[in-house]
Amino acid sequence: MGHCEVKFLPSGKIVQVESGVTLLEAAGKAGIALHHLCGGHGQCGRCRMSVVDGNVSGGSSSILSAEDTDNGIVLSCMAHVDGDVTAEIPDATRVGERIELDEDAERFITDFPGIALKEFSAKPLVTKIYMELDKPTLDSNYADSDRVKRQLLKATGAKSAGISLEVLKKLPAVLRDSDFAVTVTAFRCDSYIEVLDVEKGDSRECGYIAVVDVGTTTVVTHLVRTSDMATVEKEACFNAQAVYGREVTARIMAAEKKGVEKLQELVVGDINRLVLEMVERAEVALDDVLAVVCSGNTTMIHFLLGLPTDNIRRDPFIAVVADVPSLNAADVGLKIKEQGRLYVVPGIGSWVGGDLTSGILATGLHEKENISMLIDVGTNGEIIVGNSDWLMACSASTGPALEGGSVECGMMGERGAIEKVFESDGKVEFQVIGDGEPAGICGSGIIDLLAVMLEKGIVDRAGRFVEGSDPDVAFVDERGKYTIPGSGVFMTQDDVDNIITAKAAIFAAVKIMLDRLNISFSDLENLYIAGGFGGFINIANAQKIGLLPGIPVSKIQYAGNTALLGAKLAAMSLDAFSELREIVAKTTYFDLMGTNDYVEQFGQAQFLPHTDISLFATENSDNET
Amino acid sequence: MGHCEVKFLPSGKIVQVESGVTLLEAAGKAGIALHHLCGGHGQCGRCRMSVVDGNVSGGSSSILSAEDTDNGIVLSCMAHVDGDVTAEIPDATRVGERIELDEDAERFITDFPGIALKEFSAKPLVTKIYMELDKPTLDSNYADSDRVKRQLLKATGAKSAGISLEVLKKLPAVLRDSDFAVTVTAFRCDSYIEVLDVEKGDSRECGYIAVVDVGTTTVVTHLVRTSDMATVEKEACFNAQAVYGREVTARIMAAEKKGVEKLQELVVGDINRLVLEMVERAEVALDDVLAVVCSGNTTMIHFLLGLPTDNIRRDPFIAVVADVPSLNAADVGLKIKEQGRLYVVPGIGSWVGGDLTSGILATGLHEKENISMLIDVGTNGEIIVGNSDWLMACSASTGPALEGGSVECGMMGERGAIEKVFESDGKVEFQVIGDGEPAGICGSGIIDLLAVMLEKGIVDRAGRFVEGSDPDVAFVDERGKYTIPGSGVFMTQDDVDNIITAKAAIFAAVKIMLDRLNISFSDLENLYIAGGFGGFINIANAQKIGLLPGIPVSKIQYAGNTALLGAKLAAMSLDAFSELREIVAKTTYFDLMGTNDYVEQFGQAQFLPHTDISLFATENSDNET
């Protein structure tokens, strides 16, 4: 296979690929994120491009109109590069290349002060320790490395210490050049501490950890300084693996077909790019980034590590690893300090990963006397319920509808997305991220919109469009479609069906968990909701559509990106990391896929809000909008 | 610099080198061991070669006769290769390339059953564990690596376990291909255990550890099977670093000048060659050698690891590391199983290394109620005294005389070496290793010979030759020389001086240690002597020349290669390895170089046996020959 050069317009980005790869893959390699839902199977028709110059084979489809075909439009997922190609990407296909770190997008990457985070003592997983050592004499003649180790054990309380061969090689010279005043970079693992590097003088100020939430849809990073725990930079982008599908299962299938290395390369590339952007903006040397601490669902972590995922999607759904050992970051291709480390927040099971463990730590659910619940809505919904005595977790495959995927006008929560929809004086109004023209609708807007449509009788409780219910409802082939006035953004019957499927999957899982435990909704002291909805989720609307149960709104808190928050706690404190392990040990994983009643509950939840309206009606009295 | 090809006759071995290297260095690179004592400084005249073809620059010397020069003889340490060269190595220059594993040479590499070794439970540092795992189900759905780790912790009693990324990558396939019956290769470090590899089925029989005594003069290895602790092969060779000098200090200076990597390359090459020879003879796959466990003096270990040694020879004599962390064997260039480990027996100080710690463990001196002493005679003499409550160690620079170096007819204990000299019916007789023609004399023979010469009045108590004392004594330039009748092997005044210096250095160190501790020789319950003398040392003769004090012979034991014995115990038992660490923690290192009385004691010991003859005379009554 030969090498081809693919140029993408309007950005002019050029990428080298082997002939035969698809234009969609080439765009992914160029770091360009594209709208597509089906995972590159030529079904959703969202990844249109026009070939301006050069040849591709394939790419035509019955989804494309004759006009499209005449204009050189192809489906980029089906078009294979055949020699050098220049392709133009329409605005509708291209999504923002990264979420802008502006006020609006900060909702993705900010801490949510609404949750009181537990305080841990400052013991970063990788840290710098300054030491002024006694100089050796005939009476104090132990080896250089022993001198450093003794001081290190004293300073950190660790029980045993190691030093790598590379550090040993340079140690004598560094000690003597600096008059025995050095800064040691060391990483912790339980009661063991290992020296990664030794530098002259005091360089404690130059130590950072990149904390990463490796989401199926977005990758979010914070750069934290180890000396004072300050978050100095934040960055986020779409997970470039989206080129292989929006859903976890689609990506696992892609990994089986193309090799997991392809998926690893993409997410590692994302993290490297984000870290580089953060250090450049913060004017920090890449060499001062001592570690990457990741949290993510089990499959994303497997992709990051390049581990086979085949058995995760096959009965009995077995991961390779749940508690990942601390690694050299370079071993997976992460570009930070040469000897830098990679830590992964431990997960619970194949479908309940470290993102949820992080969420438990961040909400403190595992330490409360009364029973609480956390629902983390992602491409998979993960649910935890419990208290200081016990914890039970399960997951449900929700699909990407509530994150803006599998909804025709859906988009991620970036500039141009409708994030809120509400009625004001009988009129349907909306709010756009960045206040510009609406380009689509993100998760929080989608929940609002369906709630408004239900309230206005545009859809009935079964989720079916009602003819003549509203002037903005149109029917095509007997299937309804509602357009938000003045926006051009609409919702179809397929969209509504997908949203109902997603919320029903979550609600059914929640209901079964509680039934099994013989607990009712009113027993819940707190209900935390986490996820990437784009905007702050409107709790009352989430209840109206039956995503959340009808308990008093005061008990429900939007907790934000708990995956990132928990990982940050762990990065900054070995105690927090140990607590994550305790959480894992304490949690029972309950596999819904092995139960019969799930299908029944799922069916009952396919109404708005539910077949059993009593679950929502009575307790909604104190709701606020 | 260009590349040159150097061919050595009579073997015909060819080696590629850069132009400008010496013929001696080229021979070292070709794996040919040569006689030379001065460390390549043109002083000893032992490394003669004749240049048959091609050019060298330098190499002439006043040591060489006119006839030598006419015949193309050069000193190979001074002759720099200038283009392709063919050089012939005379028999007298060449030493055996490895010690033959015959009955005679086995004295180097055998266990000495004279010492009762402590029994430790079998817990090899790296081992293979066979496990038949329960297969995963929906109810038993933990990750593959957790399944293995749980079983591993149960089987070994370790407290925490890790698995490398490479093993994680292959783990799911190996488990499922083998129906969950696998053999795990794992290494221990305190209470931690790490999986290095996982294989289908039961391969426990295919696990070996190479135990190595990295001596300044010889490198000795045993291949031990981990399943039953059986020693299946043995091998030994001369340390190829001899090209840079016989003494430790000469090699440190060479490392400073040429780079420590040169010395590392040589000793790593030696170990690789020995291991390869052992596995080939034992018909074992190199991939089944799971670890190398080394013991050696601190400088040799630094060379093995490629660590700077500059500060070891400079006041206050500081090593980089005394307790070396467990490493990947591949990191230093050792060629065993790809993921195999390297363990080093912990040492006490810069001049008292893991070879002595091993010796303490092997003799069990640290567990006896009464006070014992161990003298390890090498190029440096190391002395330990103590009991179950305390241990004190020191070292003395002895030079290589007692190992057959710095003695004109001296050689190592290989075939052809005179290993015993004794009087029988008034005649001086000798015994040769391999029973052939004598080619020289090794350490045990040297001690015997000096004792016989003293007994016969050939030398006086000051070590000076007595004119007319024996028909076989000749005088040249007023300096005596005694030839053993019928052997052609002789001893000169310089030789005697060197031997006396060596034994005086050791005895002075022994005496000072005891004086400081206010202990007399009669307080010693046991005295162990270890070292590479070639043959079993004759204790009575060692006392006659004043190497060993005059305590009853029944209290003195020749312990053999305790460096290797101790390392083997450690390799086969984590408990033994931990005990080595306890020994280190318990031992006080006493630096003779910082004391004034050493010079005085050294002076007093320069007589045969000593200025103070009472130290030897009275208690010698029960000696046997």
How would you portray this structure in words?
Two copies of one chain form a homodimer. With 625 residues, chain A is α/β, with parallel strands linked by helices. Chain A is 27% helix and 26% strand. The first copy, chain A, contains 15 helices and 27 strands. In chain A, the strands form six sheets. Chain A has a six-stranded mixed beta sheet with strand order 12-11-10-13-15-14, with helices on both faces. A six-stranded mixed beta sheet of chain A has the order 26-25-16-17-18-27. A five-stranded mixed beta sheet of chain A has the order 2-1-5-3-4. In chain A, strand 11 (218-225) and strand 12 (231-238) form a beta hairpin. In chain A, helix 6 (248-258) packs across helix 7 and helix 7 crosses helix 8 (298-305). Chain A is globular, with a radius of gyration of 26 Å. At the A-B interface, helix 4, strand 7 and helix 5 of A face helix 4, strand 7 and helix 5 of B.
Short description:
2 copies of one chain form a homodimer. With 625 residues, chain A is an alpha/beta fold. In chain A, β22 (473-476) and β23 (479-483) form a beta hairpin.
